[in-house]
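Researcher: Next sequence.
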Amino acid sequence: MWTDSEGMKDEPVPEAMTESDIKDTIGEYVQAAKNGVAAGFDGIELHAANGYLLEQWLRPNTNLRTDRYGGSIEGRARFVLEALDAMIAAVGPDKLAIRISPFGVFNNMPVYPEMEADYAYLARQLNERRILYIHLVDMGAVPVPESMKAILRSMRNVALILSGGYTAERAQSDLAGDKGDLIAVAKQVLANPDLLKRWQTNAPLNTPDTGTFYTPGPKGYTDYTSLLEK
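Model: Next structure:
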């Protein structure tokens, strides 16, 4: 694994978490949520996407447990929902959201036949909890099917944020078609500090420098030109 200070380092051999480990980790999520709110954040987005810890529990290729935290989707989603419930108790559902990446394959998360049904179960659970929003990641090698997006959109107790290579025209179209409540934009915001102005005036866009993504230092973060500098 690459580290900025020491270059490539060996990864530790993973071990199955005990129920005590799970309890401790949920406590860390709760403390992080409290810290964020105390620092003045408007809310907390729980990261359950992109092959990180919580998604590793959701997916059957990485969650091989045989206890109550594994097996069916009800078991595999238990850790995510217990963490969310504990955070709700600490800061309230109106300050909590979640990021998910169904059909995402980043970090060796393969697509599997029950994917849509599993994430539909998770969506129903999130809807019951009335958290602030679901942030759908749709920028991987495998697009999220429209049927999955429709399931998420049908959960009307929770707002839906869409993402994934949006242009101004596509964003307007999806919002007008009630496919989501908000559109998240990343690469174009990074490369265009005045993106809103450019979209409003149909000005040309800077091209994101992918070679500087996830690298230290200001290059590729603060050196893109604005319209006033051209």
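Model: The chain has two domains: 18-185, 196-230. Residues 141 and 200 are 30 Å apart (CA to CA).
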